[in-house]
Every structure is written in structure tokens, then in C-alpha cells.
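Annex B. Sample input.
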Amino acid sequence: MQWPGNEDYSFQFMRVLGAAQEGGSTVSECLLAASGIDPACEESWFRQWKKAADFNKARGDIALARRHVKTALSNWLRAANYYRTAQVFMIARDPRRTAALAQMVACSQLYLKHVTPAGEVVEIAWSDDKTVQGYFLPAPGRARRPVVICVGAQDQYKEEYLCRMPRYAHERGLSLLLIDLPGGHGSNGRTGQSFGRYDIETSISNWLDYLTDRSDVDPRKIAIFGDGLGATSATRGAAFDDRLAAAVCDAGIWDLHERAFLAARLSGGAGCADFAGDIDKLCRSSVARSIKCPILVALGEHDWLDAGHVTRCCEALAAAGQDIDLKIFSAAETAASHAQFDNPTIGNEFIFDWIADRLGRKR
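Annex B, continued. Sample output.
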């Protein structure tokens, strides 16, 4: 806890500091920014991270002009993450928030354009004249490659994953598709526009249609990785489209918790206690029972869901014949926070190894 009296600030600081080992920040820049932040002043949060972002963006542009592409790429990645961090506590109608997100997108797309092999900005049609956007990052080589679709929660951005995912995927021969979902902040690349919440599984199926039409994708080897609360969307996508060959998701457990909590509130029960007593009954109606592919549930010991309840849910699903694996990252090994923000390296190594094994690319 960087600021023990402010959990939200401390969580966001842990997220951006944890990105340092993935190239999304540097430890020194994070500590410098934190030294100038007053948790009681949101202006100081925006000001410090915006300053760090502007420095990195400028260094990246200068490096490109001097043909130092590798230096430019690393600076743009950090700048994108700092711009994203700067606006996180700002109200939606603040024009500075819109400008920061536009800079985040601009830096990310500069990275896509100049990285090798080059990434692509791709779109699919959605609801009449609307579209949703994704970034496709092909694995090196010309053969048809397995692909991992990465999706986050509605309040996350596909740009966040440019520093976290490509290395782990490409080292294992996997291409990546980083996607926005309808209604999310990043929809169509136009910040501040939200189309409302549509059926998420339909959007994921549309992305699968897109991937199966590509000549550089092996349509039999497509996995989905739901990061953080995006794991619920990954569950729904896998449950309603059996073309997926593997799914890193929450197996419907978050949905089960919400249902149990609401039922307990309506009946005057004890919430979590009622959930613990009805796990077998709840799992029989889980949306995960419709998933045909192997499932991985990855959880931190200090995540928002109770590890004991998740373990019992996975055991109940396995007993019902589900092909499901559970990985709980303990506090002793780190990566124990939500979405492994405190140590994303350990989380990504395990998750992408599991995906590669399930897609038949074990080395």
C-alpha cells in the first residue's frame, strides 16, 4: 500500500509499478511520480503521470527521427501506460481525460506500426453503422498460427495489453488479438463513446468469424484469455461458441457469487455463507457447463473472490465432467493480487504456457 489511507490510489500505483518488468513503466519514474502525488488531490495524480507520459512520448518521437526504433518502441509503450494512468480518476466529461486517452491510443498505434512484425488495427461491424476495434499482432513466421484473443473488463483498454501480452505469446508461437468489447471505454477507438452493453458473447463470436477468415490463422487453434474481470466475458464467449479450443476464464464463478449474494439478500440470508452451502447446486446451473473446451481458472490468493469458494466450484465442475484446471497464486510466490497486478510476469508465464500446451504447441 503506497498510500495506506487510499486503497484506490494504491491499487492503481501497484498496477503501473508492476508493469515495469513488462516494459510498461520504469521503477524510477513511478517512484518519482508518486513522490509528487498528494492522495487528497486528484490534480496531483493527473499532473505527475501526465508529465511522465509526455517525457516518454517526446523521447520516443526523437528516437524514431534518429532511426533508433527499439528505443522509440519502449518509450511509446511507457507513455501509453502513463497516459492511461493519468486519467483514471477523472470524470468522463473532463476534456483532459479525452486528450489523455487519445494520446494513449496514438502511442499504441505508433508502436503497432513500427514493431516487427508489424501489428494491425482491425475492426468488425457492430450494430448497423457502429464498429468495435482490435489490435492483431501476428507471431513471427508465415505459417498459419494459433491465436489468443485477449479481453479485459468494460473499464479496461486493449492498449493496456501491448506491454503485457505480446512477448509471452510470440515466444510460444502464438498470435494475439487484443479486443475492445461493445460498451467499453475503448469502443471503436473513440474515447468517451459507449454504445451500451450488448450481448458480449455475440461480439466474441463476430471476432471468431473474423479470425477464421484470415489466411495466417489456424482456425482450429483459437483460445480466449479473459484478464481480470474480463474473465466473465471470456466465460460467456466460450459458452456460446464452441469454436474456441481453450479458455482462460472464471468458469462462471463470479456470476454464481452475484446470484448467491442477491438470493441471500432477498431471503435475508448471510450471502457468502449461503454461497458456501449451495456450491454444488449453483454449479449445476453454471454457464460454464456449456463450455466444450478446456478451462483454466487463474486466481490470486488475495483476489476479490474467495479462493476456498473458487476451489470448491472448480471441484464441483470437474466432478460433473468439465475439463477444468485451477491455479491459485499464493502470497508466498507473489502474483496473489487481482489479475496478478503485483507480479504479472509469473501470471503470464503460467497462463501462456497452459494455452500453448492446450493448443498443441508445447516445446
